[in-house]
Specification:
The strands form 6 sheets. The chain has an 8-stranded mixed sheet with strand order 6-5-7-1-8-13-4-14, sandwiched between helices. Strands 2-3 form a two-stranded antiparallel ribbon. A two-stranded antiparallel sheet has the order 9-12. By secondary structure, the protein is α/β, with parallel strands linked by helices. Helix content is 29%, strand content 14%.
Amino acid sequence: MTQSRDALTNALCQGPFGLQPWHRRSFLQAGLAGFGSLSLPGILKLRAQNPLMAADGTEAKREKTAVIMVWQPGGCSHIDTYDPKPSAISEYRGPFETIATKVPGLRFTELLPLQASIADRFTVLRSMQQTAGGHPAGSMQLLSGDPDTRDKPKPRFPDWMTVANYLRSQEGPRQNPLPMYVGVNPPLEYNGPAYLGDAYSPFTVSGDPNQPTFSVPNIGLSDAGEVQRIGRRSNLRRNLDTIERTFDQQGELAALDEFESQAMTLLTNPKTKEAFDLSREDDRTRDRYGRNSWGQQLLLSRRLVEAGVEVMTTSLSGPLCGRVQNWDDHAVNHHVFDAMRFRAAAYDRAVTALIEDIYERGLDKRVLVVVTGEFGRTPKINYAASTGAGDASAPAGTQQPGRDHWPRAFSNIWAGGGIQTGRVIGATDKRGEDVVERMCGPGDFLATIYHHLGINSATTAIRDLNGRPTPIVDHGKPIPELIA
């Protein structure tokens, strides 16, 4: 399939009968509480959306590989982390010293001593580039491949996480009781399922996993009476289903049955509750990840992929980032260097522990870990007045340094996935402004992830709501150094 996404319009349509799409999360997160009250029109509404047909070209049989994407919302400064420029003039290089890593010749800034000590277990890609300068468009470019540089209120194309969930869902009933796609405080602000519909959105876990009161609702019910009550409601729903299966040409009722079965399993299988239960980890392990929200998010991510989740996303945001709770280190938001110092220890510890565990627990062939944001930060430092006091930000009106959005060059790191590690891919110029070697774009990023998941992005397309086949990657190939 070679049809370009640029040739497609933005038009979306409703499902059959003019009804709104059925949302899978209503089953997974509402605990099936409404099945007993469903009428025939209600069932019609649930089955309203065509489940969409994928084009030929996906792999017939795939190993159940998995991906953990750790997202840095707002964009991490490549200069102050993985691509330092110690020889640049002071207006560019920043205040941080560089340190040696376990890979000869590879240096990071002093902010990442733990990651430096295990640099032989991941690969640094220093030559990522995209063309959108805003957070919405930048996120959509990297995670869905949308080439549009304009910020939009919602995505035109489904992100790779949703696409992977959808394509793997077509392979047949899921045997594992856990959802295929889980997000722990996931990056959903600018991304989502688009025309695939919320049926393939993540099972979302929100809150701070480090808090003693943290819990995930609607999983692993232990009350036998409640389990029986839910089962009766589910059976009642089936009894109300008088629609002839021969009328169900698109298999929508079968999809409803499958998702209902998954939801029932999530609610009633005790193993699901165990997978989300961080108290089952020993104190030493929890300490190694960091007793904070980021550390426990990444620990929970490891537990979930180990238990069978195949698409896992988590966003490093919130108070650990500084005053504005993300990595968007404009001078008006944060003193960029105070912000990098403020978040560095938690970030360094959590990512290091996750990568170590992937290898030490024998997950390194099956699980690919990607750590990235939507873009980098301007190599040239600028100054502006703070808009408010807080963590990593001086009182309002105080001039402080910042770095702005920079899509022309940025870094991310890759671990596991059976790839050869301890490497550096690509390079930027002496100021870190532009890629000068092995430029990689969003299509390459996406194709690499799909390749690990056993999805042939060169030949796979999904029909949009107008029935037109849309390539899941338009212009891009797997990065050779990042595939097994």
